[in-house]
Design brief:
It is built from 6 helices and 7 strands, in the order αβαβαββαβααββ. The protein has about 210 residues and is α/β, with parallel strands linked by helices. It has a 7-stranded mixed beta sheet, sandwiched between helices. Helix 1 packs parallel to helix 2. The longest helix has 17 residues.
């Protein structure tokens, strides 16, 4: 099982936001996009027994780690991880059906992937979420063109030096991308270490 120190630090604060944002009694279906090591889904599944989780990852090396966490903790409400390229149309997201999910979770992805992945995340989440379903994103973001504090500015510069297509995304851009797909930014929660949780909700057809 792989271990990421950042995931150990932020999994409990993100769990607290989840517990405030979704029904913790009703049976729900969730997809985690870019599950990484599997630490997050293992934490969430142990606390939220009413949710059946589908972890997914693009990097094949992490798929083995996710499965190891699933087996180690005997997580019966976590499905085997699937390979998922979020930049592809949702029809390519195997085992994920349209309007089948109550929750999509995406943690620390959009700043270390090309913009095509961010755009694909919104288009795909809008397609697979039920009406009133939730997309919860976590990470560092720019706000109205400004990045604070200096540590996040430095982080953004280091990302862009590694790959010009990477970097902190502006919440205003994410709001626009969401609205274009029928996902509306409902809440912004300040998180430790200068991060934020963004809660988008799919519009209801009623």
């Amino acid at each position: 099982m792989l271990n990421a120190a950042a995931a150990d630090r932020n999994k409990e604060p993100i769990l607290a936001v989840l517990q405030e944002s979704v029904n913790t009694k009703k049976p729900l279906q969730a997809l985690e996009i870019s599950s990484g090591t599997g630490q997050h889904v293992a934490c969430f599944a142990q606390a939220l027994h009413n949710i059946v989780w589908q972890p997914s990852e693009f990097d094949h090396q992490y798929l083995h780690s996710i499965e190891a966490y699933r087996a180690h903790y005997q997580l019966h409400n976590v499905k085997p991880p699937i390979h998922l390229d979020v930049s592809l149309p949702h029809q390519c997201w195997k085992e994920v059906q349209p309007e089948s999910l109550d929750l999509v979770v995406n943690i620390n992805m959009v700043h270390i992937t090309p913009m095509a992945c961010t755009e694909g995340l919104f288009r795909g989440a809008a397609a697979v979420l039920k009406p009133r379903g939730v997309l919860l994103m976590y990470g560092p973001y720019a706000v109205n063109g400004q990045i604070t504090p200096q540590s996040n500015v430095d982080f953004d510069h280091s990302l862009r030096r590694r790959n010009p297509e990477w970097g902190l995304r502006d919440i205003s851009l994410l709001r626009s991308l969401g609205q274009a797909s029928g996902l509306f930014l409902e809440k912004i929660t300040e998180m430790p270490s200068n991060n934020k949780c963004l809660l988008f909700r799919r519009e209801s057809l009623v």
